[in-house]
Amino acid sequence: MGFWTAFYAILFYIATLIFVGGLAYKIYQYATTPAPFSVPTMPAPLTTGGVILRVLSEVILFKSLFRSNKWIWLFGMLFHGALWVVLFRHLRYFVAEPGALIVLIQPFGKYGSFVMFFGLLGLLVRRIVVERIRYISSPSDYLMLILLLVIGGSGTMMSFVTHTDIVQFKAFMLGVMYFDWQRIPTDGILLLHLASVILLMIIFPFSKLLHAPGVFFSPSRNQVDNAREKRHVAPWAIEKFETPPPVVD
Amino acid sequence: MKVRLKLSTLGKLGIGLLLSLAVSAAEPTSSGRVPIPKPPKAKEPFSAEQPCVEPIDDIRRNHGHYLKHHRDDTVHSGVRTTKHSLEACINCHVTKDAAGNYPSIKTGEHFCRSCHIYAAVTIDCFQCHASRSNEPSQ
């Protein structure tokens, strides 16, 4: 059991705690933050079912972005779509006996990594080339893109150029999950890939990456257009304005 | 401010938990909880110095590359050597089971499949090539 095995195993535990705990906390915070007004952007669905469809069309198809800017939508879609496929391909390291679906997705994930890389490059070029975007871009905007590019780049390199011992790596990953550590292959590119993934997990709950859970809580998208049918009023307002004054005799 | 306080407490708890874990896990454990493929042993070592045609660390990472490269050399350039030939790999690595039969390429008993099932790898070598030794059986 070498130093790197213990180092990465412990980092994975810390990163997972921060990722899951931080994300749960942020989701709790989003869910309990009051939306004081009924403000769905019109035309809005009249039923809850309609709202579910609307939110899904935002989450899956990025509908609002499509309506506002076609080329940003294209790069965003390429990146996020390919990211899902690539993530699904990685299940082979976490499932002891990968099923038919995981086997089926392997080649798609393998070449999907190029699509993901291309999408990210497009989004990075957008930050640099479009002047009004460059003006509002902060270092973290660039760093997220660069971090994802490092993850995608090192992963693609391992698939196509400088291979690692993936059987031993899977043993390491399962060892981390089963609390029975196994040796990690110490290829530099693998260690870089894992370190950047761990960094991403750790900064996820503190960064703009929170748009992933956050999109579900957009008040203008997740509210039903029922202002006429149902009265929306905050409890404090009833207390303040609609409690009958005390009877004085 | 509230967030930071809570997260740092969580972090300290986590690190404490991990340190205690690290101590227990640092002992060499072989409880066998982690599924690891156990491919059958090869017939004989390649030479006195090394067990396989390339060092173990190398062949585990690059065998796919070597086989593909060898195929291209053979098919495109007509250079046919034995060092990285699939046939030589199969002859040495695919061994008979206790009952004296060669394992099917579809099962994890087969040298190639034992790891390829584990890593969800699909290869099409054996749609044409034989998956068992071509030496005459006794």
Poorly predicted ranges of chain B (pLDDT <50, ≥5 residues)?
A: 1-7, 17-29
How many β-strand stretches of chain A? 0
- What is the overall silhouette of chain A? globular
Main sheet makeup of chain A: none
Approximately how much helix is present in the residues of chain A?
Answer: 55-70%
CATH class of the domain at 1-10 and 65-224 in chain A: Mainly Alpha
Strand content bin of chain B = under 5%
Number of strands of chain B: 0
Order of helices and strands of chain A: HHHHHHHHHHH
Element string of chain B (H = helix, E = strand):
HHHH
Name the features:
heterodimer; A: 249 residues; Fumarate Reductase Cytochrome B subunit; globular; B: 138 residues; 46% helix
Q: What does this protein look like?
A:
The complex is a heterodimer of chains A (249) and B (138). Chain A has 249 residues and is mainly α. Chain A has a domain at 1-10 and 65-224: Up-down Bundle (Fumarate Reductase Cytochrome B subunit). Chain A has 11 helices and no strands. Chain A has helices spanning 3-32, 48-61, 63-68, 70-89, 100-129, 131-136, 139-160, 166-178, 188-203, 211-214, 235-241. In chain A, α1 runs parallel beside α9. Chain A starts with a helix and ends in an 8-residue tail after the last helix. The model of chain A has no long low-confidence stretch (mean pLDDT 94). Chain B is mainly alpha-helical. Chain B starts with a helix and ends in a 20-residue tail after the last helix. Chain B has helices spanning 2-26, 56-77, 86-93, 111-118. Classes of the chains: A mainly alpha (249), B mainly alpha (138). At the A-B interface, α1, α5 and α8 of A face α1, α2 and α4 of B.
Quick structural gist:
The complex is a heterodimer of chains A (249) and B (138). By secondary structure, chain A is mainly alpha-helical.
